[in-house]
Amino acid sequence: MKIAKPETIARVKQAARAGLLLVIVAALTLEATSIIQYIYSQKGIKEEASLRAQSEMEATKLKVINVVDQAETAVRNSMWIASWCLDIPDSMHAVTRRLVKDNPVVIGSCIAMVPGYSKKYPLYAPYTCIEDGKLADKSLAGEQYDYPSQEWFTKPLETKGGYWSEPYFDEGGGNVLMTTYSVPITDRYGKIAAVFTADISLDWLTDLVGSVKVYPSAFSMMFSRSGKIMVGPVDSIVMNKSISEMSSESKDSAVLGPLSRTILAGGTGSMPIELRGKKNYVYYSPVERTGWSMSIVIPDEEIFGNIRKLGLVVKLLQLLGIAMLILILRSVIKSQVEFSQLEESKEKMEHELQIARDIQMSMLPKFFPPFPERHDLDMCADLVSAKEVGGDLYDFYIRDERLFFCIGDVSGKGVPASLVMAVTRSLFRTVSAHEKSPQRIVTAMNESMSDMNENNMFVTFFCGVLDLTTGHLRYCNAGHNGPVILTDHKDFLPVEPNLPLGIIAGMSFKEQETDLHYDDALFLYTDGLTEAENINHELFGEERMLAALSGRRPSQEHLSNMQNAVAGFVGDAGQSDDLTMLFIHYLNDVMPNTSERHLILHNDIQQIPQLAEFVQTIADEKHLDQSQAMGLNLALEEAVTNVIMYAYPEGSDGLVEVEAILKKDALEFILTDSGKPFDPTATPEADTTLGVEDRPVGGLGIYLVRNIMDTVTYRREDGKNILTMIKKI
Amino acid sequence: MEVIISKNNSETIAEFIGRLDTPASPEVAKAVEPLMQDAAGTIILDCTQMSYISSSGLRIFLTLRKASVSNGGRIIIRNISNDIRQVFMMTGFLNLFEIE
Fold this sequence. Notes:
A: 27 strands; 41% helix; B: alpha/beta; 36% strand
């Protein structure tokens, strides 16, 4: 189990808090949306229910009116003949018979004479009805049935117009609900003579209204003008109860009372009511001409049941969504934690790479000047890896007055290259510890590296051994870029290309040699320099490189110039490859073979001419003019005379050793004697401004030495006086 | 080194021929000793043929000069080479002598 860092834990906590907030916001939004949606849907559904109820009622009403119309039309069409028959009452049965026969909706018809109108029959009411499927002529005028007092007879006489009776059960046959349409008939004088009726069965009304099912559990009702229930959900109340009775008997009378009044008043509309504790909606509308009213009762549950179910489903879906959101957030946070752990391990890796880089860099000489005690060598180097670790290398060290140095470039970059680089550098040190031939060093390294090279990595390598006492350089190249040699000119050091190290075992490498002179320099580099690219993918190239190497100058200046040149060229493009540079500036000015002259003299003043000859030879060799030669001669004579005259006790034999070192731009003379200690540089300076009388005759010799020579130093070593005089030329 | 002394009216002329180096100076010192007797007069040191002078040579010249000064005489150095003039200059001798 990895322990996460505190920052990681904090990040995770923060993410969790943000996630929780997200969940809450999402839940609230979903809830609000669903509430709004519910409200609007409910409104729509309510409107739809109302529309459906009303359209059903309209359709039903149309059907009812159609039947009513048929009956009224049938009666109207027969009115003229009924009127015509007023004078011949016995023919009236023919009229009623025909009406019933010709009109299927009419099941009975009667022409009831106004009492007293006919002289022949004071009460006369011929009637035809259907009995057992056949037409039967009857009379309603009788003792037991007082027709002139019946509603169907009196109302038309009152209103002088058509009248639909209250529905009633046919007393004759079966439980047939009926209603009667009656109109007054006038005679040719305009006097009302009779009432003409048509009975209509209302069986079809029960079926028609009963079949109106807006919703499965909804039901329809039809009320008569007086509020009697003509069609209802329960047969027992049909024609037994009026709407007013029902509402007053009900527990919900407070609600039903106003409703029944509205319905009876012929109103149209809807009203929510509580029935047996359940909410219902009542829609109502009057049926024209008949005085009836229709209403549809729909339980609230029926209307909104679906939307409530839908609401439930939506709620469930929301919960599911929120749950999924939480799961997703959890997994996101989890992956965040994993990512953080990945970051941590990446950091760790980078840290390790940094260590690797430090180790790698510690293999290379990196303190400059590397040999501060030496004045014959001025070196500096720079290695910049394109990545944390690189495949470039350089190395150098001095053994037995020889400078062993190398530069190399491992194929590839990064960690694999850096490992090969480390191996190469170690091999160089190991092999060169016992070899002074670059060719043998390179060959031995190639053998080792070819043997173990399973990844086909190779190293371009240049190895040199510089004899610091003579300036003689032996070198061997293994596929590396040819170094530049900086003398009075700048040229590429001629190199055999050879193959890089690590390619083929048994390769023979060619060694080459040259001589470095005072102030000459070698510039070694890797292809990271010549192949440095600018943003236009142009290469720095050898021309620009040579241009940046100007004149003879300290290696640090050369290096800075080159760094500036390449940085200026590359600009913002960034470093693409490892870049290594190594300057070796040779400053040993001892000229081989002709470097030193020796002369040994006795403490005899007569030896001076030999000294003069010695000095003249050196002056000639250095092509000094006569004046310079004389000055040198004078200084040497004075210094040697001093030793001859004063170093040794009088009469004893002593020697003066003169060593001359011929340098390129200076002559150094070292006088050594074994006489008594004497430091001529400690004597006071002669005052050359004094007048003749005050001027001492002695002291001029040392004065001349110090004036002619540029540097005069004295030291006493091993019982010897050593006087060193340097004259720049 | 050879020194030739001659007299011409009131002037005494010493002619130096060759190198006046240290080995030569004891001889030269001896050779110019007679000049001391003419220290009150004019002594001409002719250096036309003197190719070299060391400090011991300069010392001889200075000794002569001192004698001349104390006797109220004159010393004229004639015809020194440029190289020797350099030595004279270096040592301040240009100010001590009349140089022709």
